[in-house]
Design goal:
Helix content of chain B: 25-40%
Structural class of chain C: mainly alpha
Chains: A alpha/beta, B alpha/beta, C mainly alpha
Number of strands of chain C: 2
Strand content of chain B: 15-25%
Distance between the termini of chain C: 42 Å
Radius of gyration of chain B: 21 Å
Order of helices and strands of chain C: HHEEHHHHHHHHHH
CATH topology of the largest domain in chain B: D-Maltodextrin-Binding Protein, domain 2
CATH superfamily of the largest domain in chain B: Periplasmic binding protein-like II
Largest sheet of chain B: 10 strands, mixed
Radius of gyration of chain C: 22 Å
Largest sheet of chain C: 2 strands, antiparallel
Number of helices of chain C: 12
CATH superfamily of chain C: MetI-like
Strand order of the largest sheet of chain C: 1-2
Number of helices of chain B: 10
CATH architecture of the largest domain in chain B: 3-Layer(aba) Sandwich
Bound molecules: adenosine-5'-triphosphate, magnesium ion
Oligomer: heterotrimer
Chain lengths: 273, 276, 280
């Protein structure tokens, strides 16, 4: 237990990371009903870079991600404590009434591709029309642009009216990324975006992440340490301590991988190597 | 799936039980009779059957309605044990044997709140031909349209009533066509400007139970049991049970019960006139 | 092994059902054929009226009535049913969901005579107080919509419950609000269920006999407006089959055949909607 406390203070000391801080949490806690899933997570996520969240299964990585765009509101029984700041705003206090505004700024991509059972076009047009883009020309422009950005335009540009369900898994996942991008969010949350994909599709998406980080702040949960090494600028390790997820260590990717400070980090990195 | 099989099995069992248990009913204690036909006779038959079943445990008499014509047709096709017919047999039907169990009349009814109490035959004809469409023209509330309730073709109540008015079915203008007596009673009870005609027995019975209808006086005769018994009421008819062969066995036992004092009191309680 | 067994039993069950329908169709056809030959199909639509005992066989007004009753009931019931299902799935607090669903299941299981009786003693007098004679196309439509409403609601609600949760997550993550999500994502995603519910409801509406017979007035005529009485094909069969003979009987069998054809058509339309996977 002592070691954990030490780890927490230790991560708190590392707050002077370089660059602007886009997202930061303070003593974030989450419980599903009466069961705590996250405790005392204070993390700082720098903008326009890739932060990888790593850690064993059940350590609360997905739960943490869901706190950032308030997907936790989905089920009625969750309670969130502490605070989450997006830029200046406290997402619960300042954006309290309206998770919609928050989710416009914080997009999300899920572990399993989840395109709607409609055409490719409609998948991308839907969020746009909802948010006020009605002009057909404008729509086409944005759709082409995001499809190019995720490298899908060459593959599907000619058959936008086909059902999105006819695409391959990798194409579907890139479509979902494109769909998250049409609203021009500031932050993109990705929960194991490559876990259901083959190595080639994985590589495409990793490249894509690398390109996107010029414009977006990206938080990606991954089980694949090699992937974290390839794409991440910053790394945060979560651990399940006595049934509750905690943040063990955070820092720049280079430092975490070369000089892990916490024993658990070392164990985890070695175990996976 | 399993459940489906189970259900199937139960049905099969029931069928087998039916064949074994009731197929040979006429011989044993278990007796099962089916009566179909007139909806006027049906409630009488059902009540008589109930009393009969009480006195004869193991007996079971099912009653289904569908009009006198169905009673005749089912009997001819051998689909029932007794046909219920609320009129005399027509010449073409004389191959069947008819047993009169009661007498009834046909009452012209309106809603209880209708100010009219009496109508003569000529007025009725005008109403049913659709020549008079307003209650004001026959002495009722002016400006209230007459809603003519008629029986569906094939019902003996219709045939008798039209015979009395000397109209053919084609000449009748109707606003609502109903199937059985109950529907007729409820329809007129629910419509303040309606006029219809049903069995006197059924109408009196409904009235006793508080259904808001009124029975009109025809040709100076009120539709009462006394007037039907005395032969004063203009539209009367026999209620018959018909069979293909002369009644025997269970059916003749039932007829004997119907013609007994106990049967007569059941029939009277339903406002029909028993025959002894 | 169990899979083979299941395939076989399901196959057998399907075969039984299909052959049953075929047997019924053949029976109806057989009963109608003589009349069809003697009278000719045309006269069923062109005769001067319906009085089969006098050789007039026009069933067109009753076809019109049946179709209007069905269409009216679907138009009234389907939107309400979809709204109710959506409300139960997305808006109602969970105790309301449970009781609501239970009440609707009870309504769906209620025998149609109950609806008919209610229509006869409550609804028809209310309409009569407003537009005589009360027993009318309108009364039929209202009673039928009440009858098919729970059926459609249950099917749509099941569709909503079975819909993958990931569509909802995706919608929320895209900052769609709930109303927009329901309209543009959820309803299109479950349109197969909606089509199935509507088909089931429509089939029940066009096949309903007792309830319709009690409230529509049963006059054989093409209605001029919603408050005119009408006679549905089913009511006609119920009212007349008992004593019908010869061509009259044949004509009633032809109406049954027509009803069967309409139901098969409904199922085919449903099939088409379901198989047509992609929107646009
Ligand atoms: N909707 C929920 N309701 C109740 N408990 C939940 C819910 N979602 C997650 N949990 C619990 O919270 C804990 C953390 O789960 P979470 O999904 O965040 O882990 P994770 O780190 O993403 O795991 P993995 O790597 O396997 O995806 C687990 O114990 C899980 O059982
Ligand atoms: Mg996870």
């Amino acid at each position: 237990m002592d070691r954990i406390t030490e780890a927490v203070t230790c991560t708190q000391k590392q707050e002077n990371t370089s660059g602007n801080i886009c997202l930061c949490t303070e003593s974030l806690c989450l419980s599903y009903g009466t069961r705590a899933a996250l405790e005392n997570v204070s993390i700082r996520i720098p903008s326009r870079s890739v932060t990888a969240i790593i850690g064993p299964s059940g350590s609360g990585k997905s739960s943490f991600l869901c706190c950032l765009n308030r997907m936790t509101d989905l089920s009625g029984s969750t309670t969130v404590g502490g605070s989450v700041h997006l830029g200046e705003h406290d997402i619960h206090r300042d954006l309290g009434k309206n998770p919609i505004a928050l989710r416009r700024r914080v997009g999300m991509v899920f572990q399993l591709p989840n395109p709607f059972p409609f055409s490719i076009w409609k998948n991308l047009a839907l969020p746009l029309t909802h948010h006020g883009v009605a002009n057909k020309r404008e729509l086409s422009g944005i759709i082409e642009q995001v499809l190019r950005r995720v490298g899908l335009w060459e593959e599907v540009g000619g058959r936008l009216r086909d059902s999105a369900l006819t695409l391959s898994g990798g194409q579907q996942q890139r479509l979902c990324i494109a769909r998250a991008l049409v609203l021009e969010p500031e932050v993109l949350l990705m929960d194991e975006p490559c876990s259901s994909l083959d190595p080639l599709s994985t590589k495409r998406i990793e490249t894509l992440i690398g390109q996107l980080k010029d414009r977006y702040t990206i938080v990606v949960v991954t089980h694949d340490l090699a992937q974290a090494r390839r794409v991440a600028d910053h790394v945060a390790l979560f651990w399940n301590v006595d049934g509750v997820g905690r943040l063990i260590e955070q820092g720049s990717a280079a430092r975490i991988f070369q000089h892990p400070q916490h024993e658990l980090t070392t164990t985890y990195l070695e175990g996976q190597l | 799936m399993k459940c489906l099989f189970a259900c199937g099995r139960i049905t099969v069992l029931a069928l087998v039980a039916y064949w074994i248990g009731f197929g040979s009913s006429h011989a044993g204690e278990n007796l099962r009779l089916l009566a179909t036909g007139s909806s006027t006779v049906a409630p009488v038959m059902a009540e008589l059957a109930r009393k009969y079943e009480q006195a004869h445990p193991g007996a079971r008499i099912d009653v289904q309605t569908g009009g006198s014509s169905r009673g005749i047709a089912d009997m001819i096709n051998g689909l029932c044990d007794m046909g219920m017919v609320s009129r005399d047999l027509k010449p073409s039907e004389r191959v069947l044997h008819a047993y009169t169990i009661a007498h009834d009349g046909i009452a012209v009814i309106t809603h209880r709140d209708n100010p009219i109490d009496v109508l003569d035959r000529a007025r009725l004809i005008e109403i049913y031909r659709g020549e008079v469409r307003d209650w004001g023209d026959v002495g009722g509330a002016a400006g209230v349209p007459i809603v003519v309730v008629n029986k569906a073709a094939g019902r003996s109540t219709l045939e008798l009533f039209l015979h009395y008015l000397d109209l053919s079915p084609d000449q009748v203008h109707s606003d609502i066509i109903i199937g059985d007596n109950q529907q007729g009673l409820k329809t007129v009870a629910g419509n303040r400007s309606g006029i219809g005609y049903v069995s006197i027995g059924a109408a009196l019975h409904a009235q006793q139970e508080g259904v808001p209808i009124k029975l009109l006086t025809l040709e100076g005769a009120e539709p009462t049991i006394a007037n039907v018994t005395a032969g004063n009421y203009p539209i009367t008819r026999p209620l018959n049970i018909v069979t293909r062969k002369p009644a025997q066995g269970a059916v003749s036992e039932l007829l004997a019960f119907i013609h007994s004092d106990e049967g007569a009191s059941v029939i009277e309680s339903l406002n029909f006139v028993p025959v002894r | 092994m169990t899979d083979r067994l299941l395939t076989w039993t399901l196959g057998a069950a399907t075969l039984v059902v299909v052959s049953l329908i075929a047997v019924i169709a053949v029976f109806l056809l057989n009963e109608s054929l003589d009349t069809l030959n003697r009278v000719g199909l045309g006269r069923f639509f062109s005769d001067s009226g319906w009085s089969p005992t006098m050789g007039r066989f026009n069933i067109l007004p009753m076809i019109v009535a049946s179709v209007l009753l069905m269409a009216g009931a679907v138009i009234v019931a389907a939107p309400l049913a979809v709204l109710t299902a959506v409300f139960l799935r997305f808006y109602a607090p969970s105790p309301v969901v449970d009781t609501g669903r239970r009440i609707i299941e009870v309504l769906a299981a209620m025998p149609s005579v109950v609806y008919g009786l209610w229509g006869l003693v409550v609804l028809v007098p209310v309409i009569a107080a407003w537009q005589q004679p009360g027993a009318s196309l309108m009364a039929g439509i209202l009673v039928l919509s009440l009858m098919i409403f729970p059926t459609i609601t249950i099917v749509v609600h099941s569709g909503l419950t079975a819909m993958p949760q990931r569509y909802i997550e995706a919608s929320l993550a895209l900052a769609l609000n709930r109303a927009y999500m329901v309209r543009r994502v959820v309803l299109p995603a479950i349109r197969a269920s909606i089509a199935a519910g509507v088909t089931l409801g429509a089939a029940r509406a066009i096949g309903e006999t007792m309830a319709v017979m009690m409230v529509t007035g049963n006059i054989v005529a093409v209605p001029g407006d919603l408050f005119d009485p009408v006679r549905a094909l089913t009511s006609n069969i119920a009212l007349e089959m008992a004593y019908a003979l010869g061509d009259h009987r044949g004509a009633l069998y032809i109406s049954s055949l027509l009803l069967l054809a309409v139901v098969i058509l409904l199922v085919l339309i449903n099939e088409f909607i379901v198989s047509n996977k992609c929107e646009y």
